[in-house]
Write a structure and sequence with these properties.
The complex is a heterodimer. Chain A contains 9 helices and 12 strands. Chain A has a 5-stranded antiparallel sheet with strand order 4-5-8-6-7, with helices on one face. In chain A, a hairpin with a 5-residue loop joins strand 11 and strand 12. In chain A, helix 3 packs antiparallel against helix 6. The longest helix of chain A is centred in the last third of the chain and has 16 residues. The mean pLDDT of chain A is 93. By secondary structure, chain B is an alpha+beta fold. Chain B contains 25 helices and 32 strands. In chain B, strand 27 and strand 28 form a beta hairpin. In chain B, helix 5 crosses helix 6, helix 16 runs parallel beside helix 24 and helix 23 crosses helix 24. The longest helix of chain B is centred in the last third of the chain and has 28 residues. Chains A and B meet through strand 1, strand 3, helix 4 and helix 9 of A and strand 4 and helix 25 of B.
Chain lengths: 251, 994
């Protein structure tokens, strides 16, 4: 149960509260994921709404978004790349966007999240306090999610790719992706490819230059497991199809 | 702790805890317009409010987060135009538009929709339809199919721009926006509005009915204004001092005996008022199926038992001061289970050595139920000479089909409040379709005479069959008996998925004999139906699977005169949550198989699939083929079907979908992408209208001293608009406006009996009772009017008196108003209360018919199916209210769309549910809907005074097979099991490729 609620006015106060272990304290962005969660132990929530962590900034090709920026403000911001706006609109409805934050969306990411897939493909980086820790989303997914050193996400940023395309198969036009593939390309020729299946976390398939790299990565792809959403056969073949659509859209 | 919240411009101090949600606090403060759908992640959006002018889910926000922000609820939006001496601000344009365009069915999500629309229009006074749909996307509606809410918002926007709120949507104006359809012979009495989409469906008349004043008119629903204001009309919108929260401990294992259960720790927890286990309450066997007496199924369950039969089964009940304490108490109950082998696959249920679910000695058989074989019910029906029919066929077609378990997903969860009244009578305030059955069924379970139980049904936030069940009323009642205090029990969404009821999943084998010219010589369906752990509705649901779907195609020529039809079914127990009633009641399952099978046969014989169906379909004047063999209610009796508008349905439906320009047109099937293919499909269906010789409804009508009337009905409007339709019938007979009929339903103490809302019966059965009661009242009025108008010179006879426009007139033009008559009868002369009660039971069940069409786009690489358009042309007899009736069709088609494409409840090998929320169990949202079109083909059913037939269930029947046939048409994939998920379509495509 939620035992305590705090609304600090400064980052320092927030970090001080979050450093406590009794009761366990967790940051509250929009709260859409916390308010009805049935916690097994007493917790304290640290509401970040009074801390200015919602700024959005675009300098050159670098896009930086404060972790408590509401998804709706991201949709409305002129500087938001089209791929991110589209992912937010496809993943969430207006009620969710008016409350949920980009930080909270990444903290709770799953394979159903287009936001997570496109940001992973865009090689998004996360900045954490205390200490200003800077870690790529991919590394955080791999090793950081269970680490206690990542206490409070303050911002996300990425070097805006030239293009980010996502292909997915879902049950209905508005349903979450059962499987998806997402490819980001930069002018430098760098290409990152991410695949996802609804029950597991999005996975970086390759990061390199040129389409050949991608083809090799597809061939080297590890065997997937059936989930409650789809069989391994379906995942393997359809994800390959979606990747093919990304790399050879004309075919 | 205390916080200040600013709600609708007023700052108030509220007592909250750190974990209080904003929704909880708002409702405690009396803002009941925000509703709770039981969901954990804000999936349903019925709790929407505006925070700083933007819509949010109040269930997903802590109250403390909202401090310092501006909160707007529906209560600030507008008010009823009549507030006595105080001038009313009136309803807002949005509220009026929702009420008048039929956008409100059950009304549970209406306040949320109106607030979402308000936020949209405040920022964008001229939204597109797409923007409106996006604004509505956060709010799930299981009733409307979203079309009318979208129309309402567009209308409101239009009128706000023109500053004409309150003066718009004159439904009697002409229609200019409906495209022409072939040979229109409608009388154009129905109309449209001026925006992109039309409110009133097209009505084509096969037979010209009598002209009615109120029947056939798109009257505003009698409950629309209160629902548009978010008034506290539902079960949970009710506070009592000292009310406890009741909770259920559910079984974590699928099959086990309870070896030991110790509730002592839970009982000693502060704030716990009672903990009940099987040791504490009477052991009374019963069925939770809300059906007439005798229950047509086995008695196989107890309120609490020492055995559990599915994950989610009941283990104990708790009543506590708060929900938090109740949940903690549940965790403190110690249970030791002796686990038993689990039976999940119905195919294994009747095999030797299969685990037996029901070995209790109290089990009461019904008909051929046999718990020693896990058999809840068995059906064997042979009509004609089936084997001879197969011998005479040129070809035999056989195939297997599968349909899933799916959930009713009414947005209002099951909720019940119980309390002892001042006379020590138990009051059960509950969201139910069957208040009278609840009283009868619970009486022995509670050891309380029925006369000491009163059941009150407030508004219902959707039911769809899920509330044709005594699901939690006994839980609350036991806890009130134990504590002496009021108790509220409300299921959350997880419990709705794991411990409620659902549609029976079935495996269906079809075998059909056909001549090369397309004449069906014999038709056979063999069904294995999975009733889950208990046999509620087992026999009757599955009986209807055959009774309705296998009756449609009788064959042609000599076979038409003597059809050969076989329907066999085994309905078996498994260790999964029980199935039960769900809109369509077994019939959608049957039509998936029948209509997919007909398509295969037609294509295999290279016959036109529509012509093949028409050739073999039932026709007017023919015998219902099952009527001599099986009836859901009583012994079967031959029944002639008098009205069949099917061929006209087909003609109009195929024109609306553009069948002739698309079917067999190779170019049309192509898209700009080579892997996307278009397809078109059709399915024809029939349903029933009530259960003959069994269903009975009654009505009372009482005249008030201003000439208005109270219409008291036991019928339960679960959002369908039946209160309105019944009011229209009374108004028609009594010659008054609908707003002179004050409809009240239902309360077992005050309203006459009605069997409840199921079997598509209310308009027909309860309507029959209303008409009879109204006729009796009208006769009393005529008698008195004749006396009042008679003079010494001229004696007026009652036959001369015509009731119209609130007056009783005679041929000379003289009249008295009904208010004059009421005052005369109550105060002036030979005083009497003009009042009558009548009941109605039907010897027939006239079927509605429909042609349903679907257009789809299939991704042939991923298997993803996108439905682009659904058309339904339906013969439901005379349409009493075209707006509410088309709302039924649109909502039903949308539920059926989910059945076709995405809805499915699955279980792992241990019986654990894989779908427990509205994220994994997806129901369609406003922004992903296909185009919907409804066309009514009116016939006049002679067995009803206004010629009506049923409308509510039939839209469930044909969407799935029409979509399945369209998938086949698009890409050749034979999908024989629904939902047609991407993987199922993909696998079907793989089978083609070998």
């Amino acid at each position: 149960m939620i035992q305590e609620y705090h609304r600090p006015d400064s980052l320092e106060d927030a970090l001080r509260l979050l450093s406590r272990t009794a009761p366990k304290s967790i940051p509250l962005g929009g709260g859409s994921g916390i308010s009805q969660t049935k916690f097994t132990q007493p917790i304290a929530v640290i509401d970040l709404q009074n801390i200015k962590l919602n700024q959005m900034d675009r300098r050159g090709s670098i896009v930086a978004i404060g972790s408590t920026a509401r998804l709706q403000s991201i949709v409305e911001w002129d500087g938001t790349p089209a791929f991110l706006r589209e992912a937010v609109l496809n993943d969430t409805n207006a009620n969710q966007r008016n409350v949920a934050t980009i930080g909270g969306s990444l903290i709770r990411l799953t394979g159903k999240s287009r936001i997570a897939s496109v940001l992973l493909a865009a090689d998004c980086r996360l900045v954490w306090e205390p200490g200003g820790l800077d870690i790529s989303l991919g590394d955080w997914i791999a090793v950081g999610r269970t680490s206690s050193q990542f206490r409070l996400m303050t911002s996300v940023y990425f070097d805006n790719p030239q293009s980010v395309q996502l292909e997915a198969a879902s049950q209905t036009p508005g349903g979450f992706p059962l499987v998806s593939a997402c490819m980001a390309k930069w002018k430098s020729g760098r290409v990152r490819l991410v695949t996802a299946e609804a029950s597991s976390l999005p996975e970086l398939l390759c990061d390199g230059k040129g389409i050949e790299n991608i083809k090799n990565a597809i061939n080297a792809r590890s065997h997937t497991l059936s989930s409650k959403y789809s069989s391994s056969c379906y995942q393997e073949e359809v994800i390959s199809t979606l990747i093919q659509r990304l790399i050879e859209p004309e075919n | 702790m205390q916080i200040e919240l600013t709600i609708n411009g007023i700052t108030i101090v509220c007592e909250v805890t750190a974990s209080s949600t904003l929704l909880d606090v708002l409702r405690k403060q009396g803002y009941f317009g925000a509703k709770f759908g039981g969901c954990q992640f804000g999936e349903c959006g019925s709790c929407s409010i505006l925070l700083d002018g933007k819509p949010i889910n109040s269930c997903s926000m802590l109250a403390l987060q909202a401090a310092g922000h501006s909160i707007t609820t529906i209560e600030a939006e507008g008010e009823h135009p009549e507030k006595g001496w105080r001038e009313s601000i009136g309803l807002s344009a949005l509220q009026l538009a929702f009420a008048r365009s039929g956008a409100i069915q059950c009304g549970y999500c209406t306040p949320a929709m109106i607030l979402a629309a308000k936020a949209l229009l405040d920022g964008n006074p001229a939204p597109s339809e797409t923007q409106v749909r996006q604004a509505l996307a956060p709010i799930l509606c299981r009733c409307t199919g979203y079309l009318k809410p979208v129309q309402a918002i567009l209308l409101a926007a239009d009128m706000i721009r023109q500053n004409q709120a309150g003066e718009f949507l004159d439904l009697s104006t002409g229609d200019t926006s409906i495209p022409s359809l072939p040979d229109q012979d409608n009388d154009d009495q129905n109309s449209d509005v001026s925006t992109l989409t039309k409110v009133i469906p097209q009505v084509k008349l096969v037979q010209k009915p009598s002209k009615f004043e109120r029947v056939g008119k798109p009257e505003v629903k009698v409950d629309a204004y209160k629902l548009a204001q978010g008034k506290p009309a539902f079960t949970d919108d009710f506070e009592m001092r000292g009310m406890l929260i009741g909770k259920i401990l559910h079984s974590p294992v699928a099959h086990a005996r309870i070896k030991r259960i110790d509730a002592s720790k839970a009982q000693s927890l502060e704030g716990v008022a009672a903990v009940l286990t099987w040791q504490d309450i009477p052991r009374v066997v019963y069925s939770s199926a809300g059906q007439s007496d005798p229950i047509p199924g086995p008695l196989d369950m107890f309120s609490l038992d020492h055995k559990v039969r599915f994950i989610g089964d009941r283990v104990a009940f708790v009543a506590a001061e708060t929900e938090e304490i109740a949940n903690r108490a549940l965790a403190l109950i110690e249970v030791e289970y002796e686990e038993l082998p689990v039976l999940i696959d119905p195919e294994f249920a009747m095999r030797e050595n299969a685990p037996l679910l029901h070995d209790e000695p109290e089990y009461v058989n019904f008909a051929n139920s046999d718990p020693s074989r896990n058999l809840a019910a068995e059906i064997r029906i042979d009509i004609g000479s089936v084997d001879k029919g197969f011998e005479e066929a040129d070809q035999i077609f056989e195939a297997d089909y599968g349909v899933p378990k799916v959930q009713q997903s009414h947005i209002e969860p099951h909720v019940t409040i119980t309390y002892w009244d001042e006379d020590d009578r138990l009051v059960i305030r509950t969201s139910t379709q069957v208040p009278f059955h609840i009283r009868r069924i619970l009486s022995p379970v509670l050891k309380l005479p029925a006369k000491r139980i009163r059941v009150i049904k407030p508004r219902i936030g959707g039911g769809f069959g899920g509330k044709q069940e005594v699901l939690i009323e006994d839980v609350a009642a036991h806890l009130t008996i134990a504590t002496g205090r009021p108790v509220r029990v409300m299921l959350d969404r997880n419990e709705e998925f794991t411990a409620s009821r659902a549609r029976h999943p079935m495996k269906i084998h079809m075998k059909t004999g056909v001549k090369n010219d397309g004449t069906i010589t014999a038709n056979e369906m063999v069904v294995l139906s999975d009733t889950g752990a208990y046999g509620c509705h087992a026999l009757t649901v599955t009986g209807n699977t055959g009774h309705k779907s296998m009756a449609l195609y009788v064959g042609d020529g000599i076979y038409r005169q003597s059809p050969n039809i076989r329907f066999y079914a085994d309905i078996v127990y498994t260790n999964t949550p029980p199935a039960g009633a769900f809109r369509g009641y077994g019939v959608p399952q049957g039509y998936w198989a029948v209509e997919r099978h007909m398509e295969k046969i037609a294509r295999s014989l290279k016959l036109d699939p529509i012509e093949f169906r028409i050739k073999n379909a039932l026709r007017s004047g023919e015998l219902h083929p099952f009527s001599t063999s099986w009836s859901e209610g009583r012994e079967p009796k031959p029944e002639i079907i008098h009205t069949v508008g099917l061929e006209e349905c087909v003609r109009q439906g195929r024109a609306a979908i553009g069948w002739d320009e698309k079917f067999n047109q190779a170019e049309w099937h192509k898209t700009s992408k080579p892997y996307l293919r278009r397809g078109i499909g059709a399915a024809f269906v029939m349903q029933g209208t009530a259960i003959p010789y069994l269903d009975m409804g009654a009505a009372s009508i009482k005249m008030n001293d201003d000439g208005s009337f109270n219409l008291l009905i036991g019928a339960t409007d679960l959002g369908t608009g039946s209160d309105t339709v019944l009011g229209q019938m009374a108004a028609e007979v009594l010659g008054v406006n609908l707003d002179d009929i004050i409809v009240y339903s239902s309360d077992t103490d005050f309203t006459p009996f009605d069997k409840g809302a199921y079997a598509s019966s209310t308009t027909y059965i309860s309507g029959g009772a209303v008409v009879e009661a109204a006729k009796k009242v009208a006769e009393r009025i005529r008698l008195r009017a004749a006396a009042m108008l008679s003079t010494a010179d001229r004696k007026i006879s009652t036959e001369e008196i015509v009731l119209k426009d609130g007056k009783a007139s005679c041929s000379t033009g003289q009249f008295v108003t009904l208010a004059d008559i009421a005052l005369n009868s109550l105060h002036h002369a030979n005083q009497e209360q003009i009042m009558a009660t009548a009941s109605y039971m039907s010897p027939v069940s006239p079927p509605p018919f429909a042609a349903q069409f679907a257009e789809v786009e299939v991704d042939t690489q991923t298997g993803q199916v996108t439905v682009k358009k659904l058309v339904m042309a339906v013969d439901s007899g005379v349409i009493v209210n075209p707006v509410t009736a088309s709302g039924q069709i649109e909502g039903g088609m949308t539920q059926a769309l989910g059945y076709a494409i995405c809805e499915e409840m699955r279980y792992d090998e241990n019986g654990e549910a894989l779908e427990k929320d509205w994220i994994d169990y997806h129901i369609f949202r406003a922004d992903e809907m296909p185009e919907l079109e409804t066309i009514f083909i009116e016939t006049f059913e002679p067995s009803h005074p206004f010629g009506v037939k049923a409308v509510a269930e039939i839209p469930m029947d044909g969407v799935a097979p029409a979509v399945g046939n369209a998938i086949l048409d698009a890409c050749g994939a034979e999908v024989d099991e629904i939902p047609a998920t991407p993987e199922r379509v993909w696998k079907a495509l793989k089978r083609i490729k070998g």
